[in-house]
Amino acid sequence: MSITILGIESSCDDTSAAVVRDGLLLSNRIANQDVHRTFGGVVPELASRAHQQNIIPVVDLAMKEAGVLPTEINAVAFTQGPGLMGSLLVGASFAKGFSLARKIPIIAVNHLQGHVLALFIQRPSSVFPPSAALTQPGSQSNQPAFPFLCLLVSGGHSQILIVRNYLEMEIIGQTIDDAAGEAFDKCGKVIGLPYPAGPVIDRLAKEGDPLAFTFSRPRISDLNYSFSGLKTSFLYFLRDQLRDDPDFIRKNLNSLCASLQYTIVEILLNKLRQASKLTGIKEIGLAGGVSANSALKAAVLAEAEKRRWNVFIPALAYTMDNAAMIATTGYYKYLKGEFAGQDVVPLARM
Questions:
Q1: How many angstroms separate the Cα of 308 from the Cα of each of 278, 280, 311?
Q2: How far apart are alpha carbons 286 and 294 in whole angstroms?
Q3: What confidence tier does 277 reach under pLDDT thresholds 50, 70, 90?
Q4: Is the residue at 55 inside a domain?
Q5: Residue 73: how many CB atoms within 10 A of its CB?
Q6: Is the pLDDT of residue 33 over 70?
Q7: Considering the domain boundaries, does residue 171 fall inside one?
Q8: Which of 14, 46, 232, 292 holds its CA 20 to 30 A away from the CA of 138?
Q9: What is the C-alpha to C-alpha distance for residues 350 and 338, in angstroms, rounded to an integer?
Q10: d(CA 100, CA 323)
Q11: Counted domains in the chain
Q12: Which residue range is the domain that position 58 belongs to?
């Protein structure tokens, strides 16, 4: 008997719904919220209101694209957290209502666990892109073997995990303050780039010199990250330069982006090297929105050649927040019988 999971993602400003059947992704629909660009960041109240408007049309589109009727859904999975509480409430409320109406189980998913399992999203046809990009020549799999290390980097989180199976993961390093994606966005805002600044910095950096400017790097002995010092260093550097040349940013925009990006990537990569050496694990996965950064991918691939890593990176469509990763995680939790009750509540922090 087939197992069909409806997934709901609403942790931040993207409303997404997806359908997975027997581990294969049949659809993944996302409604974006451009309204936040005006404010240079996500406004929680506006995000939750937009989710309320988008949730039903997005679910309807996802089910129609998958060719699945509501009566064929075996369980509904939703993002429990972490995320914005108002946004999470919309997804959780819809999932509970759908579960009650259809008398089917409900599955609560950790958003970060979902990002890791984006590496295991599979489409039923070669017409669609696979979830994981195989980067090590000679291997016959497009998915990492357990155990593997995963560098999870996004706007709100930066972590290194040991992934022992689909549902067992151990955090061995994480940011003690800001995340890598947050550093991209906040530094980008300082130099006048639109939100989200990460993709813009990635594009502009291609025309700049990554060694033009030097910024502060954290000195932390373990596998944890810190990016607050880098942001402060970047801000003070600009303050001093603008004092002498008010047009400094415009003249050096590409190299500023390239140098900032180079610094962030080196901070991330240095800890990943340490983690691989300490654990002896050479299966490496990237996940989260920052895994789409071209410099980070290039740096990890270059490191893989030197250290004989097998590297796996989700297809671009599955690096950002999406319900495909939630439905996929829900599928594996369904197989283990990990269901939630109607008393389950969303959690801004997990």
A1: 15, 12, 9
A2: 12
A3: very high
A4: yes
A5: 20
A6: no
A7: no
A8: 292
A9: 17
A10: 20
A11: 2
A12: 4-129+318-335
